[in-house]
């Protein structure tokens, strides 16, 4: 019986993406996707006022990245990737936790993303991170006739936060 080798967890720092990260981001994009974004795709997206890019850094190396849009009541993840050598080492989990930390009961309370129907690894990763598939988007991609799953994470307030909000409403009434 073969035992799966346990990969060691790595410590990452998640920060804003800057211009000099682009070569490493493009390398990760090429390694991870059959239909990768071009540098122009990244730049066009990141020039939008509501679009944010972040990287996960291990030492001096970019090992993952995410691009997301800010909307009034949600975050929309447009691109999310971890270098294949750093998968199953909690890099993606740290990136998702960074996104979840940006949610609140009063403002942005959910995260949305689309995943190709053939990308089972990503589906399982996001499901294990608390996301749920809420619909199928037929013929979603420009490059294939492939469908996508629309997945959502909903913010869950802590007990303390719920008590604080309920107490605020009682005092205001």
Describe the fold and architecture.
The chain has one domain (13-172): Aminopeptidase, CATH 3.40.630. The chain has helices at 22-32, 39-46, 91-100, 120-128, 159-172, and strands at residues 13-16, 51-58, 61-70, 75-82, 110-116, 132-137, 148-154. Helices cover 30% and strands 29% of the residues. With 173 residues, the protein is α+β, with helices and mostly antiparallel strands.
What's the layout of helices and strands?
Layout: E1 13-16, H1 22-32, H2 39-46, E2 51-58, E3 61-70, E4 75-82, H3 91-100, E5 110-116, H4 120-128, E6 132-137, E7 148-154, H5 159-172
Parallel strand pairs: 4-5
Antiparallel strand pairs: 1-2, 2-3, 3-4, 5-7, 6-7
Number of helices: 5
Largest sheet features = 7 strands, mixed
Distance between the termini: 65 Å
Which fold does the CATH topology refer to? Answer: Aminopeptidase
Mean pLDDT: 90
Structural class: alpha+beta
Rg result: 18 Å
Helix content: 25-40%
- The CATH class, by name, is Alpha Beta
**In sequence order, what are the helices and strands, one letter per element?**
EHHEEEHEHEEH
Strand content: 25-35%
Strand order of the largest sheet: 1-2-3-4-5-7-6
Q: What's the overall geometry?
A: globular
How many strand elements? 7
Number of domains: 1
CATH superfamily: Gcn5-related N-acetyltransferase (GNAT)
CATH architecture: 3-Layer(aba) Sandwich
| Low confidence ranges | 1-5
């Amino acid at each position: 019986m073969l035992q799966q080798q346990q990969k060691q967890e790595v410590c990452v720092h998640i920060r804003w993406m800057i211009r000099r990260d682009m070569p490493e981001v493009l390398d990760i994009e090429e390694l991870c996707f059959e239909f990768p974004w071009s540098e122009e795709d990244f730049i066009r997206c990141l020039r939008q006022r509501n679009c944010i890019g972040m990287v996960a850094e291990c030492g001096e190396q970019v090992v993952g990245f995410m691009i997301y849009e800010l909307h009034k009541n949600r975050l929309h993840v447009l691109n999310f990737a971890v270098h294949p050598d750093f998968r199953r080492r909690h890099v993606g989990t740290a990136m998702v936790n960074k996104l979840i930390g940006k949610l609140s009961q009063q403002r942005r309370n959910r995260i949305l993303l689309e995943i190709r129907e053939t990308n089972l690894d990503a589906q399982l990763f996001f499901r294990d991170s608390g996301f749920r598939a809420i619909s199928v988007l037929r013929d979603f991609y420009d490059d294939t006739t492939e469908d996508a799953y629309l997945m959502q994470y909903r913010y869950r307030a802590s007990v303390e936060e719920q008590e604080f909000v309920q107490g605020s409403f009682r005092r205001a009434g």
